[in-house]
Specification:
By secondary structure, the protein is of the alpha+beta class. Helix content is 36%, strand content 27%. The chain contains 1 helix and 8 strands.
Length: 146
Amino acid sequence: MKNDQNGFTLIESLLVLSIFMIISSITVFSLKPQHSVLEDEAFLTQLKADLYYSQQYAISHQHEVSVVILPTQYKYYMLLRTDQPPILVRNYSRNIYLAEASIPLYFKFLNDGNVNQFGTFLIQTKNKTYQMTLLIGKGRFYVKEF
């Protein structure tokens, strides 16, 4: 009589499972640095989009739009007047810190889309430091790695 069992032994199953766990843990550790890079890029993209939105709002509604950055609270907001609710409030990661450089973290987009002051402020992340520059005339701005 033939005892034919078509299955795996416990040792074989554990061996395959442990190999799978080793490979998956290597993948997780290699993706961790990529997460912070993506977080930085997402923040910069969102900040630029919000600044463009504020500028377009100022032009289309013919009102000054103030941009206020609160680094201790990890948020920034855009508002028309202090007695009205903000147009936009955005919280950002605690891994990102914004600091004054040649301008304070408060500026306005005027009715024509220009900024009321020009200069730079710093954006510090875990891995890199960026410099955001607001240009005089036309309200343009750009971000470069510092």
